[in-house]
Amino acid sequence: MQKIAILGSTGSIGRNTLDVVDRLSPRFQVVAISGGINTGLLAEQTARYKPEIVSVSTTAHAKDLTERLEALNTALPKIYVGMDGMLAVATHPQAEIVVSATVGALGLLPTYKAIELGRRVAIANKEPLVMAGELMQKRARENGAEILPVDSEHNALHQCLRGEKNHEVVKLVLTASGGPFRNTPREEMEKASIAQAMKHPTWQMGSKITIDSATMMNKGLEVIEAHWLFGFAPEQIDIVIHPQSVVHSMIELVDGSFLAQLGRTDMRLPIQYALTYPDRLVLDLPRLDLTSLQKLEFFAPDRERFPAIDLSYKALRLGGIAPAVLNAANEVAVAAFLAGKIGFMDISRVIAQAISTCEKQGVKELNSIEDALNADTQTRQLTEGFIAELASLTLVGKS
Ligand SMILES: NC(=O)c1ccc[n+]([C@@H]2O[C@H](COP(=O)([O-])OP(=O)(O)OC[C@H]3O[C@@H](n4cnc5c(N)ncnc54)[C@H](OP(=O)(O)O)[C@@H]3O)[C@@H](O)[C@H]2O)c1
């Protein structure tokens, strides 16, 4: 039985991971889980999987979880709180696999610590790779850790690259659904509501990644993620819009061949692949019916309406702390949009301001995780300032 720890067990990826664990029972034993505030679900998961360690975001949630577990007559696990708790989950001494599925920069330290311990890290939480992918890969090589992508596009690329030599690969092609605003005129995007932005055409996901898909920042972050996962140069990583979301990504080879991975839009497939690699096991889910596919379309993305794409390539090329700056500015801007403080197109304006400030100040090198964390903290403060300015301009405009 392989022991597994799950960061973000109450989220979309976390719940799908537990579904895979159930399907493959008794292959995995869940030894540690973390959530944020969903103590009801954490209590159910604890009662069912009996992990030794459970982590929640605050002491109030720890108290609430304890009461819920007592009401369920469940033996209490060790309950931890906040970042210490996430670190305890990520470094559980028996965990062989750590699933990294919290959201945003929050996952950086715990994921990095799991890599330092030489674990297999099944990584869905792309932001840590964006912020410090080079350091994570270096540590993984030094400590014998494996980083296996759960993100469907990178998982598809991992499958396509199996057995191929890197020098025979010309390009990695990331597919993108195009999100809810694929064909929406810019003027309408300026006025887009939260509900409109949250309407992803093909995937059911958490709110942050859903907004990232609407701005196409998700694809920009994925370009940086692909760079660090597979070691290809920015100009070798392309994005194509593929509204059907059937081809999850592809590679182009020197002889002109393309290899693609196709499948239904169900995260349980990439999750199972990352947990069981190099084995490929049966997954009893509805199959893709090729004959029902009317068409598979591919378009170039509109970089004018989706400035997040070029901002991401720019941050990757600038190097150093620039991707961490991009990520922090995006996280703050998405939260501000979801809180109704800024408009949809302001998200990329705010990120552009943060990247341009970083460039003007001279991009600092990224030599340690602390460098990434400092860039994250400073950019968050700076970006809050930009947002306050934007909000006051909007108020002046309205008065
Ligand atoms: N969903 C997908 O299909 C998908 C696909 C590819 C990549 N990803 C990536 O995978 C990651 C997870 O995505 P998701 O869609 O699963 O997100 P999600 O549904 O929002 O889940 C996020 C998880 O993180 C926990 N969390 C949030 N804030 C926390 C805090 N302050 N302290 C501790 N835990 C906290 C949440 O706990 P509570 O809910 O208990 O608060 C939840 O368990 C993201 O980086 C995303 O980009 C997701």
Q: Could you tell me the mean pLDDT?
A: 96
Would you tell me the structural class of the helices and strands?
alpha/beta
Q: Using DSSP, what is the number of strands? A: 11
Q: Tell me the name of the CATH class of the domain at 2-149.
A: Alpha Beta
CATH hierarchy: architecture of the domain at 2-149: 3-Layer(aba) Sandwich
Which fold name fills CATH's third level, the topology of the domain at 2-149? Rossmann fold
Would you give an account of this structure?
This protein has 399 residues and is of the alpha/beta class. The protein is built from 16 helices and eleven strands. The strands form two sheets. A seven-stranded parallel β-sheet has the order 4-3-2-1-5-6-7, sandwiched between helices. β2, α2 (39-49) and β3 form a beta-alpha-beta unit. α6 runs parallel beside α11 and α13 runs parallel beside α15. Bound molecules: NADP nicotinamide-adenine-dinucleotide phosphate. The site of NADP nicotinamide-adenine-dinucleotide phosphate has 27 residues, from α1 and α6.
Summarize the structure.
The protein is an alpha/beta fold and 399 residues long. It has helices at 12-23, 39-49, 59-71, 82-90, 108-116, 126-143, 152-161, 186-190, 194-197, 207-215, 217-230, 268-276, 308-318, 322-338, 346-360, 369-398; strands spanning 2-7, 28-34, 53-56, 78-81, 97-100, 120-123, 146-149, 169-176, 237-241, 247-253, 258-262.
